[in-house]
Design brief:
mainly alpha, 4 helices, 0% strand
Length: 132
């Protein structure tokens, strides 16, 4: 399917919703596949290498890989939340302002929950509370 959402269409019309649903499902499937590959390699690799340097290098590499997988697990939760918003009819609308999130932003980040302006305000407020 060569369909791409357009500003010429009604915002979040059925075709747009299905387009984003399929993007989200494909992204989730890719993450799960990568996680399964990581798990298979981890199970097959010899964890106790005789040389301490080799073992340290291997353990550091796996630590980085497992942290990345943990981040991906959090992305899956956001994908699932976006899929729920599609089902509930809230997808594509800012959770702060209720305004439509631009199609360009949703194309770039289909799990976005805020408009760019709302996201920037949120990040500024977060920075102030963290620094203050």
């Amino acid at each position: 399917m060569d369909y791409r959402p357009s500003d010429d269409e009604e915002f979040m019309c059925p075709m747009q919703l299905e387009y984003f649903r399929q993007r989200l499902l494909a992204w989730k499937a890719q993450i799960l596949s990568e996680a399964e590959t990581t798990l298979n390699v981890l199970q097959m690799e010899e964890l106790r290498k005789p040389d301490q340097n080799d073992r340290a290098t291997s353990e550091a590499g796996w630590s980085i890989e497992l942290r990345a997988r943990d981040r991906q697990r959090k992305v899956i939760a956001k994908i699932d939340a976006a899929l729920r918003r599609i089902d509930e009819g809230d997808y594509g609308y800012c959770t702060v302002t209720g305004e439509p999130i631009s199609l360009r932003r949703l194309e770039a980040r289909p799990i976005a929950t805020m408009t760019v302006d709302a996201q920037e305000q949120h990040e500024r407020a977060e920075r102030v509370s963290r620094d203050g």
